[in-house]
Amino acid sequence: MPEGGPARLEPATIRRLAEDIENPTAALNFLGDFLSMLPGRITRILDTLADGDAKAAMDATLSLKITSAMTGAVDAETCCSRIESLIRCGRFEEASEAAQLLHGIVTALMVAGPGLLLDARSDLQGLEAQPSRQEPAV
């Protein structure tokens, strides 16, 4: 997991989401929502860890972990997994330290957000022209 490296998304992940739901526009909207919600999500993780609220910290961490996985934000997902593990072990100080690393990753994603959306839009352009998958006739 890079410290202070460039923000990145795994392009195949958002492409797979668009194909699975057969709607590239909805996948892009989901990615846009993910990016716009990052400030609130990281704040919630940091605050609940500082308060020692294990249940709320776990909920906030899992929420970000799942959406990170769905959008291809691999570094954020990996860091959330680490925080999740530390919370489960009751190691809140270490979880708070890992959350500071996550804060850096999230900040990089927020700054790069417009470019990441443009890249995803460009990557998904060809999908809208493709016919939707149909089940074979039986």
Model description:
The N and C termini lie far apart (48 Å). The chain has five helices and no strands. It has 138 residues and is an all-alpha fold. The radius of gyration is 17 Å and the shape is elongated.
Which key terms come to mind for this protein?
disordered C terminus; about 75% helix; single chain; mainly alpha; about 140 residues
Q: What are the low-pLDDT stretches, counting only 5+ consecutive residues below 50?
A: 134-138
Number of strands: 0
Relative helix content? over 70%
SSE order, as H and E? HHHHH
Structural class: mainly alpha
Shape: elongated
Proportion of residues in β-strands? under 5%
Give the C-alpha Rg.
17 Å
Mean pLDDT over the full residue set: 90
Individual helix count: 5
Intertermini distance: 48 Å
Compile the SSE list and pairings.
Layout: H1 11-21, H2 24-51, H3 54-71, H4 74-88, H5 92-124
Would you summarize the structure shown here?
The protein is an all-alpha fold. It has helices at 11-21, 24-51, 54-71, 74-88, 92-124. 33% of the residues are buried.
